[in-house]
Specification:
The protein is built from 26 helices and 21 strands. Keywords: Cell membrane, Membrane, Transmembrane, Transmembrane helix.
């Protein structure tokens, strides 16, 4: 019967409308909406990647080779298992536009394609002409199509000519869409497409040139991709190939999307935690207004369980409403902002209502609502019938019974566990949960300290004669103070924003401030051995050049470790794909051998290897281990005889793996170089070296830094939006706290006016009180956000942390400003109310 009675009471209570629960619904809906929106975008992108996997990859499967093209036997095997094969070659080069006595040069990612390209999808050109027609060019020159960014940079127009290496091409169209661009990963230069056969005569592909040949396969319907991968590994064993297929067409893009989305979900959970403060405050305020009703019900014989269930049913019904509103908003936001999302992430997406992310968001919302409402609900058991005849202000104070405390802890564990499993980032989730919990406890401690300090300062001599300040301090430290809810809600939102600000500042600083002081001006590739001395003479002869470093460069794939396939030993990044390899008789300049010994001068015995110490420790390598490296289709097995420190932070040359010269004798290779020069010399070097050796590619490190900065800016913007959403939720909580305290402020204002206080003094009292809470929240946000930023910068990004004071000051100012706005918004009505009306109603 108690359940039926509780349901009847709840239904009658809900007939009174949603008065007092607007903040509850807003906080819960915003938190759920943020998580649902992020999850929906991720699901849309995942489904787009799955639907258009063949278009993104350029085929049903791809085989990539480094430094070489497929042999006749390998090509015959590919044609045997497929319906069609498309061959392309991809590398960096310089596009040169002669102008008068000089020339304009631009770095480009050059791709040569055959007549079968593209197997899937279509190339977008402006003007819209067939790709084959664009490649036909003119009777004098073959045609090429180019990214509009590079066209503008070089000042070209359709019909103009430019050089690639030693050959002249005519620009026939702008490349507006490359169907398989999403699988290509990060590139430093805009794209140029030419016919593969037209690369003959350019002089760009020579022994040792850094290029990748790609063979896209159109497979028969229903082909077993796993079986074909095994066949490829057997048929091309020792070829140093990489197999990709539509099961994961763009692994880098997919992983980036998953990680960014998971991180944003964690930011959304922080927002839900902020909203939880508002939810808890709204429930607590509602139940305090119902103290008389609860006491009356107990007087009439209602059981404690019945009363608990009655209000639990009400909260459950309102929770369902809030979750539904949040899910509707979260599903609609990606559709509304679809153009903006597509502009930031130009990959295919299937937009729509996706049940999976919505269910995940609903689960988070349900657990968060239960977590933050159970505690105030449990305190209804402490309301006694005698409250009807006493002051009920203290009714329900104290801790709930232990079953409710245990249930609260169980819900908290369930929420964290769900986030850890569903986000796919268990470690980050656990650390984030610990950080949020620590921030909660810190903010509670700060709120308690704020009240104590305000109470003491209110009695201090220094504030005597300053009525408004003294009243504000007394109110901030007195009974019914809003310090707890204000500092908690605003402080947590500001903490998330402060952490994002510090991380963003350090990311940008590490790239745009620290690196340019030590980074080279140019990273130079594809220097042939017979060009090396002339290149060095030209570079070092320039008065603006301070240092030139060169090294032989090959690329190889680590295929085996101690006879076992490398992929079975570790999933470390050095074992995925090909890596740069060099050789030298002596240790590289600045390199410190940390273990073992470098090979003797003139050593000609079995191959020896020096490996990067940090990466070796991560893989689990030891001195004496054997590595098999595939270089140009040839397996070279060597023993690790030394470890050395490799510094990748200065954008200079750093090789994971170095071998003795005799081990790589006879292998075709080129050389790479770094040039350290002042800015005034950069254009001169590009002109002189590019004019003398057209096949040499010079990559501006400054431009590369700018490109990386653009990508980081997009990431920072996404996380900042998430943090702002959290802060907005905190503002809603502030509005709720201010609204809940309006009645108390009205009575306070009436008393103060009766005692002779002016409206200005009363308003100053309210404003100073709000500023105190905002200052407290801002200061704790600086500390907590700084600690979070230091942890991420130091342990995740592994860079030095520098505290950014500008964003910290903005956080404090923002905290004070937001609380002032919220407090003053609900101060005008108490000021306008006549004291007599208030005091008579109080009698």
């Amino acid at each position: 019967m108690s359940v039926r009675n509780a349901a009847r009471i709840a239904r009658r209570e809900l007939r009174g409308g949603l008065s007092g629960f607007r903040v509850f619904l807003a906080c819960l809906a915003l938190g759920v909406a943020a998580i649902a929106a992020v999850g929906s975008v991720r699901e849309s992108l995942d489904q787009g990647l799955a639907r258009d996997a063949a278009v993104i990859l350029g085929g049903d499967a791809e085989i990539e080779l480094t430094y070489r093209f497929a042999s006749d036997a390998e090509r015959a095997w590919m044609e045997e298992i497929s319906d069609a094969v498309s061959e392309t070659v991809d590398f960096r080069s310089m596009a040169v536009v002669p102008r008068g006595d000089g020339a304009e040069r631009g770095l480009t990612q050059l791709r040569g394609v055959d007549g079968a390209y593209p197997l899937y999808g279509a190339v977008g050109l402006e003007p819209a002409i067939p790709l084959a027609e664009a490649f036909d060019g003119t009777p004098e020159h073959p045609g090429a199509v180019m990214d509009p960014v590079l066209i503008a940079r070089l000042g070209l127009e359709t019909g103009d000519t430019f050089r690639l290496g030693e050959k002249t091409f005519v620009l026939t169209a702008a490349l507006t869409r490359e169907p398989d661009t999403s699988a290509g990963g990060f590139t430093l230069g805009p794209r140029t497409l030419v016919r593969l056969a037209d690369l003959d005569g350019t002089g760009l592909i020579q022994p040792g040139t850094l290029y990748e040949s790609e063979y896209r396969l159109a497979l028969p319907p229903g082909a077993d991709l796993a079986a074909l991968e095994r066949q490829a590994n057997a048929a091309l064993e020792g070829a140093g190939h990489r197999w990709s297929d539509t099961r994961n067409a763009a692994p880098g893009t997919s992983e980036f999307i998953d990680r960014l989305a998971s991180f944003l979900v964690l930011v959304g959970l922080a927002g839900l935690a902020v909203g939880g403060v508002g939810v808890s405050a709204a429930v607590r305020a509602y139940l305090e207004r119902k103290t008389g009703v609860i006491a009356t019900l107990k007087t009439l014989g209602a059981e404690t369980r019945t009363i608990f269930l009655a209000y639990a049913f009400q909260i459950a019904a309102l929770t369902a409403v809030g979750i539904v509103l949040g899910l509707a908003l979260g599903a609609a936001l990606p559709l509304a902002f679809r153009p903006l999302i597509e502009a930031q992430l130009p990959i295919p997406a299937v937009y729509g209502v996706h049940p999976g992310p919505l269910l995940e968001a609903a689960l988070y919302g349900l657990l968060a609502a239960a977590l933050f409402t159970l505690w105030p609900l449990a305190r209804t058991e402490q309301v006694r019938a005698a409250t009807l005849y006493r002051d009920g202000a203290q009714a329900g104070a104290g801790w709930p019974r232990w079953p409710h405390v245990a249930a609260t802890l169980a819900i908290l564990v369930g929420l964290v566990a769900s986030a850890a499993v569903l986000s796919g980032l268990a470690r980050l989730t656990l650390w984030s949960a610990a950080g949020i919990l620590a921030a909660f406890l810190s903010l509670l401690a700060v709120a308690w300290a704020t009240r104590r300090i305000a109470r003491r300062l209110a009695r201090a001599r220094v504030v005597r004669g300053r009525s408004s300040l003294r009243m504000a301090l007394g109110s901030a430290g007195g009974p019914g103070s809003e310090a707890g809810s204000v500092v908690l809600s605003l402080g947590l939102g500001l903490t998330v924003l402060a952490a994002v600000g510090q991380i963003d500042s350090n990311l940008r600083g590490a790239i745009t401030r620290d690196l340019p002081e030590v980074a080279p001006s140019y990273f130079v590739v594809d220097i042939q051995t017979d060009q090396l001395q002339g290149f060095r003479d030209t570079a070092t002869g320039d008065p603006g050049v301070t240092r030139v470093e060169t090294a032989p460069m090959l690329r190889g794939v680590i295929t085996r470790i101690n006879g076992r396939p490398a992929s079975e030993v570790s999933d470390h990044w050095t074992l995925r794909g090909d890596r740069g390899i060099t050789y030298s008789a002596d240790p590289p300049t600045g390199a410190e051998v940390t273990a073992g010994a470098w090979w003797p001068e003139g050593y000609t015995g079995p191959p020896q290897i020096s490996f990067a110490a940090e990466e070796a420790a991560e893989i689990g390598l030891s001195l004496g281990d054997e590595l098999t490296v595939n270089v140009l289709g040839r397996d070279i097995t060597g023993e690790i005889t030394s470890f050395r420190n490799v510094d990748f932070s200065n954008a200079g040359m750093g090789f994971i793996l170095s071998m003795n010269p005799a081990a790589l004798r006879g292998a075709p290779h080129s050389h790479i170089a770094t040039i350290y020069a002042d800015r005034a010399a950069e254009a001169r070097l590009l002109r002189e070296i590019g004019g003398a050796w057209p096949n040499i590619t010079m990559i501006s490190v400054r431009s590369a830094i700018d490109r990386v900065s653009e990508i980081l800016a997009g990431i920072a913007a996404a996380t900042t939006y998430g943090a702002l959403a959290t802060l907005f939720t905190g503002f809603i909580v502030l509005i709720g706290a201010a609204a809940a305290g309006e009645r108390a402020r009205t009575y306070e204002a009436a008393i103060l006016k009766t005692l002779g206080a002016t409206r200005g003094a009363v308003l100053a009292n309210f404003a100073l009180r709000s500023a105190i809470f905002g200052l407290a929240a801002g200061l704790v946000a600086i500390v907590a956000g700084g600690l979070a930023g230091w942890a991420v910068t130091t342990f995740v990004m592994e860079t030095e942390f520098y505290f950014e004071p500008v964003s910290a000051i903005a956080i404090v100012a923002g905290g004070v400003g937001v609380t002032l706005l919220a407090g003053l918004a609900f101060a005008w009505r108490p000021l306008a109310t006549r004291p007599a009306r208030v005091l008579r109603a109080r009698e």
